Structures are given as structure tokens and as C-alpha cells.
Amino acid sequence: MRSKAQIAFSLLVFLFFVLFLWMARGWPLQARLFPWTIGFTMLFIAAIRLGLDLLGTSSKTSRPEARVDFQFTAGIEVGLATRRTVSILLWIWGGLLSVWLFGFAVTIPLLVFLYLKVQSGESWLLSMLLTAAAWLMLWGLFDKLLHIPFHRGVFYEWLGRIVS
Amino acid sequence: MLEAFWLGLTSVLSWPAFGLLLLGTFIGFWIGLLPGLGGLTTLAILLPFTFGMAPVNALALLIAVHAVNGTTGDITSILFGVPGEGSAAATILDGHPMAKNGEAGRALGAALMSSMFGAVVGASALALSVPVVRPLVLTFTAAELFALILLGLTFIASLTGTSWTKGLLMAGLGLAFSMVGMDPHSSIPRYTLGEPYLWEGIPLAPVAIGLFAVPEIIDLAVRGTSIAAPVARVSKGVMEGIKDTFRHWGVTLRCSLIGTFIGIIPGLGGSVAQWVAYAHAVQSAKDKSRFGTGDVRGVLGPGAANNSKDGGDIIPTVAFGVPGSASMAILLSGFLIIGLVPGSAMLTKHLHVTFSMVWTLVIANMITVAACFLFLDKLAALTRIRGSVLIPFILFLAFIGAYTANNNMADLLVMAIFGLLGYAMVFLEWPRPPLVLGLVLGPLAENYLYIAVGAFGASFLLRPLVVAILLLAIGLLFYAVRQKQRGSFGEEE
User: Fold this and answer.
1) How far is B348 from chain A (nearest CA, A)?
2) Cα B175 to Cα B431: distance, rounded to the nearest angstrom
């Protein structure tokens, strides 16, 4: 499973650099020089990487002492881990969609409340209190004090157009 | 000179300068904690308030905000894996794993103490550089700066982790992403996909939050526990972090000097300082086995560099009126508002004002670190709250942090896309640090290369200082390769 994913990722990186070079083909030399210098070098390395993955020479798990980056927690049942991963990704992307549609003022309190109540199963009191705290921080600190021009949501624009 | 040095101190400690220093420290502390809101925004907000102030008073306020911002920016990186600002992302690599290992207090103690250490080194450099800075800065043309960027890129060799090819490809990917935007030389939009948002390039903050915070949020959700396992008492860890700063004084000092040097060179900036310092901490360590899983040296290096670069940053701003970074450009506007003209007058007639900046850097950091130690227990205890309760708040901070890069919805999309990429990279063991280093150094490398070729032709490579820096880069690369061959790092292929 992981080795197939490795091959797929290496292939994606390879294709990225193919596209990267192809997009630069029509530019004047001055604009193309740096992308091509980097792109051709990386395409060569990406081909080596893909070859190594296809030959299976790098499929063995790397030694722990060789890592310079964090690793996901091991020892959790694969099915459960997958379900939880999909769930949190849906919350992130759902939150993003909601901000786009309804803006920050609606999404942030809604996201905090729904996550606490529905996903985490917290009590009504705690969920409401923490939602109020999040809203207060958003409204008081970021909106009123720091004047961040928050996105208001395209839904209201659409609604305005329909009404008018 | 000693008289001016003393006068600088007494000016800062007098009223109302000291009160403004405290106010700036307070504001900088909280703004630094909030993801996305960096020193740049804060300085811009505070600038109008300095009208009519005496120079020492105005600079006490502005420099305190700027100095403290970097110090507290590391706190959210360590506790939640969400960088306070793009330049604080390198602290996540080992700081957050330490928090997960129940060592949040130690990581915070190390970050704060090394920040103070770095601030003192940076301020000392600022004080000592007065007679020597002019020839140093004037020696560096675009050719030498390009060689310096190449030197920075060789640090990628230390961050490649398990595989050379993966590390180099991720660095290449970072360089490729750095080319997105309007080409400054031919004014052609490159890789912008017809989107005006991308004309300015891909912003660092959403990329850093996506790459680093999103996989951490996913891991926290999958584990279903708190960030850290319960520990007996965190303050013991805080003291351990303070001791670590002096136990590993060599790394802290070297990274402070790296930060100062990068600060002096205009245009390199805080992100470069942190990442290069982190890479140096990895490269110079004999035992690299704990980096990425919670090695305190991975916190000390970026922490020290992040603050020492502030002292360095101020040097060209004060001496020549050449701002080393965007924050310094705003500070330069502050100089003009309060009636100071950067240049020789700052090193002669207004020397005590220059020294008051040195003292502000040191005192503001000392106050912050002292204040932090009063409630580090409470901060570190946040890592023991259930993940199910923390996650919506971390998501909230991540969304706000990413959005404030350009106040644009596309910032959130960039965060989400890089979140997926970061997840895939962690899952498949592709190193993320080289990508960020490539993204940070890419535009600088291209820019200086064009200017150097335009000014000197290909012969820029034969300039003595360029040759020296390139030889150093080759030496460092060779050293990294030798280290890997000796087995400090594993190598798959």
C-alpha cells in the first residue's frame, strides 16, 4: 500500500516538473532561465527517484535515527486512523467552504460549536461556553481591536442579488 | 563612546521611555502569540502614535514591540504546531514534538532563554559594529549575496533526512513554488494560472501553517488524546530548558551569530535566519538521532537566531538608511517621523539614541522572559487539555493565521492545499524543511544572480569573496556528505 503510494507521489513530483518546464517554454530567456535550470535538474532527480521506487529499492522503512521530520503516531488501528483522518480533513475543508460561503463571523462559532458538540460529544454547557469564547475573540480582538477585514461570505452577495 | 553607551541606558530607564518600553513589550507579547499577526502589522499600526514623541521614547515603543514579537512567536509553534508567524515555523520541527513528549515547559524555557541570549548577542553586535559595519556592508555586492544564498542552500543537505533524492526534490519543489508570481526582470507572470492573487507569489505564512500545522492537527485527531502526556510538574522542565541554553552554548552562540549576520545583510530576513540556524544545529550535531522527534538543540538554534537577527537588522538601517527587512522599512519611516536621519549622524551626534536601541532590545527581552516564566506552567498546561476540545481552537488559529497573510480567501485555499501536501509528505516520509528553505531562498537567489550577471557578467564567480564563500559552501556540502557516509544519517539508496 505504502510503496504504491510512494510510486504515485514520486510520479506526481516527476509530472509536476514536466509541467513546470513545459509551461516555461514560451517565455523569454530571462524569465525562463532560472525555472529551466532548476526544472531540468529536478526532472533528472525525479526520474531517479521514480526509478528507485519502481525497482522497490527504497520501500523498506527508513531507520528511525535517520529522520529530520516528525512522524505520525504509530500503533493506532489502520481503519480507525483512516476514519479519523478523513473526518478531520472534512472538518478542515468544510470549514474552508463555510468561510467562503458564510464568512468568518458565522463559520468560526459554528465550527467550534459543531466540533465540540457533534464530533467530540462535549456537554451543552462546555460547548456553548467555548463557542462564546471563540466568538468573543474573533469579534473583540480580531474584528473590533485589530480591524482585520474579514471575508463576509459570497452567500450574502448572492442573496442580495436575488432580493434586488 | 562609553559615555553615549551609558547615556543610552539611562535614557531608556527614564520616564516615559521605560513606560513605553513596557507598553511595547506588552503589545508585542500578545501580538506575537497570535498566528499571522507579525511584527510588521504591529509596527505599522503603532507608527502614527509616535508623532511628536522624543526619539528615545518612540524607539523604546517600536523596538520593544519588534523585539518581543519574535520571542513569543515561538510559543504557539511549540504548544500547538501553529507558527505565530512564518519566520517561527522552524521551531515547530523539534519544539512541538517536545511538547508531545511532555516537555513543553522545557521547550518553552529553551526557546525563551535562547531568544534572550540571541537578543543580547544581536544587540552586542549592533553596539560593537558601529566602527566596522560600513566596510563590511559595502563589500557585499549582489555577487557575494548570491554566493551567500548558495551557501544557505547547501544547508539543505543537512535537512534531507532519510533520502538525498527526496530532500533535493523537496528543495527543488520549494524553489519551483518560489518562482510563482510576476518575474521582476521581464514583468511576465510566471506559473500564476491567470490568477492575480498569485502575481505576488505564494505567501509563506499559509504555506507554513498548511505544511506544519495541518498534519499536526490530523495527528492529534487520530490519536484522540491531549497534545502531551500528563507530566508531574512543568516548571522543572522550564529550568531544564534554561540550563539547556547554556549546556549547548556553542549551538546557541553560533546560531545567534548566524542570525546577526543574516540580519545585517539586507533582504535576507527572519525566515532565512531561522531555517539556516536550524539546519546548522542539525549539521553541527554529532548525534542527529533525535532531531525531528524533540531535540532541544532544534529549538535553541532557531530561537537564538530569530532574535539575534533583530540586532543585525537594525545595523544597516541605522548606519546607511538601508532597511534590512520590511519591518525595518517601517522602522525607517519611524525614524523620519521623529526627525532622525539615518547615516553618520546616528553614529556620532545621535550615538546615544543608537545605543538606546541596543538597550531596548536587551531590556524588552529580559522583561518578556522574566514575565513568561511566571506563567509558563499555565501555558504548558494547555498541552494537557483533551485534543477533542483543543482542535476547533487550533483550527480557528490556523484559519486566522493563514488568512491574515493577504486578507484573502485564497490564503485559506493555499493553507488547505499545502495541508494535504504536508500530510502526504509526512505519511510517505518526504522531508518538509527543504521545501520551506527552497521557498524562502528561491526569489533571493534568482534576483541576486540576475543583478550579479548584469553588473559583472560571468566573471562575478571569480570575485575573491565569492570564491571564498563558494569554497566554504563546497566544504560544508562535502562535510554533510561525509557525515552521512559515516552513518550519522541513514540512506536508503
Assistant:
1) 39
2) 15
